[in-house]
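Lab notebook, bench 4. We co-purified these components, and the gel suggests they stay together. Before we commit to crystallization screens, I want a quick structural picture of the whole thing.
Request: model the full complex, all chains together.
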Amino acid sequence: MSTRIVELKKVKLKNPVFIEGLPGVGNVGRIAGGYLVEELKAVKFAELYSSHFMPFVILQKGATVHVLKNEFYYWKAKKRGQRDLIILIGDSQSINPEGHYDVVYTILDYLAKFKVKDMFTLAGLSVGEKKEKPNVIGATNDDKLIKKYSKYGIDFKSGENIGTIVGASGLLIGLGKERGINGVCLLGETSGMPLLPDPRAAEEVLKVLAKILNVKIDTSKIKEKVKEMENFIKRIESIQRKAILDIMKQKLPKIGKKAKEEELSYIG
Amino acid sequence: MSTRIVELKKVKLKNPVFIEGLPGVGNVGRIAGGYLVEELKAVKFAELYSSHFMPFVILQKGATVHVLKNEFYYWKAKKRGQRDLIILIGDSQSINPEGHYDVVYTILDYLAKFKVKDMFTLAGLSVGEKKEKPNVIGATNDDKLIKKYSKYGIDFKSGENIGTIVGASGLLIGLGKERGINGVCLLGETSGMPLLPDPRAAEEVLKVLAKILNVKIDTSKIKEKVKEMENFIKRIESIQRKAILDIMKQKLPKIGKKAKEEELSYIG
Amino acid sequence: MSTRIVELKKVKLKNPVFIEGLPGVGNVGRIAGGYLVEELKAVKFAELYSSHFMPFVILQKGATVHVLKNEFYYWKAKKRGQRDLIILIGDSQSINPEGHYDVVYTILDYLAKFKVKDMFTLAGLSVGEKKEKPNVIGATNDDKLIKKYSKYGIDFKSGENIGTIVGASGLLIGLGKERGINGVCLLGETSGMPLLPDPRAAEEVLKVLAKILNVKIDTSKIKEKVKEMENFIKRIESIQRKAILDIMKQKLPKIGKKAKEEELSYIG
Amino acid sequence: MSTRIVELKKVKLKNPVFIEGLPGVGNVGRIAGGYLVEELKAVKFAELYSSHFMPFVILQKGATVHVLKNEFYYWKAKKRGQRDLIILIGDSQSINPEGHYDVVYTILDYLAKFKVKDMFTLAGLSVGEKKEKPNVIGATNDDKLIKKYSKYGIDFKSGENIGTIVGASGLLIGLGKERGINGVCLLGETSGMPLLPDPRAAEEVLKVLAKILNVKIDTSKIKEKVKEMENFIKRIESIQRKAILDIMKQKLPKIGKKAKEEELSYIG
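Here is the predicted assembly.
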């Protein structure tokens, strides 16, 4: 089955900008993406399912089940200087290396239908300490973009020292280049503490993004929202953590002393 | 190869209800499903094989080999107020995360041929202690169903706190929603002790299911049956457990102190 | 790529019997199969490659590389009472669970071209101790075959207690049944000591097989042959063992105390 | 997605020789291949991407992202006695066993378009100690080639004792044979110390290769170049190492004492 997209409604968009905000370090991308969708009242039009997500459903309020997925929202420009948007948010990334490529290529193939030419991916960057005012560090797939976007307060200088960007935020702009998409990854500095969603980093990322997109986002409610979300996010994360542990327990039973000797002799 | 279904006979069914009972916590689903098939004298019409099951055959009485599989049975309504049934039972679920999606989508594609609109998945819910009278907790893919089925003694209230349902019972109703199938998962409370099939939990699940399906199931023999099955089930489980261990031993030889240093240097 | 068969020459065979002898416990199947090919001067006509084998080449005498593969040989009946044979031998089985199904289905699809109706798979059965006269234990995919083959000295009684047959020898007869192939697995009792090829068990398996096939096999040279092979086999096995270790070292670097805390936080 | 090649420009080559130089022991292949491309001013004409590479992008100078890939370069013969070349270099090999086959078959399929008949793969051979003058050990897919190439100072004698060649350098010549490609693997002796690129071994391999190809390569600058590269290579390797560790941490959380008991009971 791998990865597939279920389109809920046909949407016509004019030269849309693509925004990605999926789970990751400090949940910066997920928080920023989710808040953007809410503030803009963007409308869901497609869902992405993948066998590279955890094989379980999550029980929601009212005992209804929730399958892990990513969701595409659209928003139409309201005035001159704005552009149509496609926003991808969701509650999972691939749980295996190969899956990241599969999911990202599926997304890029879908974006091709909308002739997407510009992309911003939102992520966190673990810097090991909490910062009063987290920087927004930039990485891009075309150095011409550095000049274009530096004015928005993105720190491209520090980008050199990041090392790697693992998962969708990195691969989308990396593999998107070949499709002719200009891509910038906005990384909010965060402590990198696990299970700790970082609204401050998300806020800074959103401020930069709002300036670029020429939309007004009231970020004052973001902490409050995250507090509301926090319990839910923490719960999902601890569930995922537990589920991974459970599955691993099944797949990796303790190996005794005799393991080495017998290792190649199991086939009858 | 992945997953495929071998149809043993063509069957015409009228608006059938789908029931799933596969191995899991306390083997509640497997026991309830198997007992239902036996009591109704349902007829096997298809088998499902998957490369996501363990790569071995089990030796049965008479030295004949048994390949791990899932089996589809049908039962035709005998009187007004009953409906045709498709019952899926079997001795395995996927041994890797991706496989669960593959198996479940294969099942859903097959059910589409029968225009299945209603589904019940049977499972156990580990509550950490043995209960005198285990509850049957419900989860669903549509909150309208809660009202419809609450009268049958299903506890949908507690469903919110389950966390996740891993494997086929959860994914079938979760992914089935998109196919337009109304799905309810019936979870019998069980202690969660490994290798311990729980006939009491299965009995409670079956009682609820029988009421919904308007069929008469004499559950008085279930303990007895499980005792008969117990040795067989225990044997299969301990075999599977051993086989997983053996395979893991092969794939995960003990790693000495030098592992870390050399880890990236194996390619010639 | 998965698994594919490269046909070296077109062969016409009349109602051939299929024999499988691949590596496994005590290398019983591999030794018996290889000796049979040599004694009958069977001719290679196809090779099977698979991405489920180890991703390396083995250096042979003369510095030429050897890719891991399975090989199909044929032998034509010389006199009445004999039948054409297809013999599969090789130096590897799948290194992952899914691969066993993939390889076995590829073999079965290929055998279908030759309308194979009868199959014998050769394997070792670990009994924990060296036996003076190892039994040949039988497992089958059709209990009618037990009567037919019991007269050849196969112990089908003990077959019930084997538990499982992992890999090609088990799956070939298990999945072959659905294709209408009568299958018997001949398991020579062996100590199960790793890296110890067991010519005695292979000899007993071969004796039974020769009687069934009505061919004359001089098994007196088998120990000698195995001694010749032993160094080679041991070398290949210790190479495989080392290679598995090396690959695992790369893929499973030691995990420190901080692993648990950080496990879900690697995505940027 | 697996593995795919993106062609950047159409190139016509006359009976080209294929050279592979990818990362591995002592980075001998990568250094030799990269230096060859630079010295010959070979031109890039295709890129290979694979879901079997690490799922991240690397940040480069100027904050631009770099997706892991392999790259095809061509060079046209300048004078009689030379031949057109296709040179494959890159920064990754597959991170899982199956992927090696997938990548290698994708390369071989692509080479078939250029009717490649001769191939040299460049690699390091870990000998456990630093050598003043490292030998270049040869392995081949056809023993007729030993005579042809021995005069170039390749030690085919020692090739017998190598054991295995893991990854692309081995599989390319091994699987290439079936495609009718004459293949020689040139292995430079190196200490096998991890993270230590070995320019001396690469130099010796290059000298042999230059003689065979009848091209002039000034190897005097190789140490210098490697020193320049060293920081970059070390950085990439330590990043990869860290990333593998991070991903493994996610996928292999520590397993407590209860793991064994619960291992098979996670499915609801």
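The mean pLDDT of chain D is 87. Worth comparing against the SEC data before the next meeting. The longest strand of chain D covers residues 118-126.
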